[in-house]
Amino acid sequence: MSALKLPRTLRLDPSDAFVFAEAAEPGEWAVTGSFLFWDRDLTSLTGKDRIAFRSGFLGVRSFAFSTLVVVSEANEAERDAAVAELAGHLQARLGAPDRTAALVAAREEIDFAASLCDLPIGTVVAMHRTETKGAISEAFRTLHQKPGGEDRLHAGARAFRFVETDEDEPEERADLIGLARSRTS
C-alpha cells in the first residue's frame, strides 16, 4: 500500500499576499476550491477574485488561496483533521445543511486533492482553472527544480523554473504594484 499524500500550500515569495484577497498560510492542507465558483457569474469576476478563480488552490485551515501546492506525505489522522476542518468551513461559511452533508462534501474534496498527488513527495504543482460553456475545467502542471549553473546572473537564487506549455490560452497578467498600492490605501 502506498503512502497517503496530500497537497500543502507553498509560498516561494510574498506575491500571494498581493494577488489574492486573502492568502493561505504556507503548509496548510489544500484542495482545488473550484466549488467556491460554481454558482458565481464567472464572466463578471475581476481583480483578485479573477486571479483566485484562475489559479488559486484553497487552504483548508484559512479558507484562503495559494498559487502553488507541494505534494506532501500525510497520515490518516491528518487527512481526517483536514476533512473535519474543511467540513466546518462548508457548514459555517457556505451553508451546508448539516454536519453530515458537510463531511461528505469535504471528504470528496480531500479525496480529489489526494488523487492529484500521484507524484513524488516534494513535487510542486500549479493549477489553471477556466470556464467554457458553463463548465469549470482545471489543468495542472508541475514545476521542476532548476539545475544549478543555468543562470549565471542568479546562480542558485531561483529554486524553480516555469515550463512552457503548448496551450493557446491568453497570457494572464497581474499588476503587482497596483495591487500593493490598493492594499495600502
TrEMBL record:
Superkingdom of the organism of origin: Bacteria
Any Pfam family hit: DUF6505
InterPro entries: DUF6505
Spans annotated as Disordered: 165-185
Protein name in UniProt: DUF6505 family protein
Organism annotation: Methylobacterium adhaesivum
Taxonomic path: Bacteria, Pseudomonadati, Pseudomonadota, Alphaproteobacteria, Hyphomicrobiales
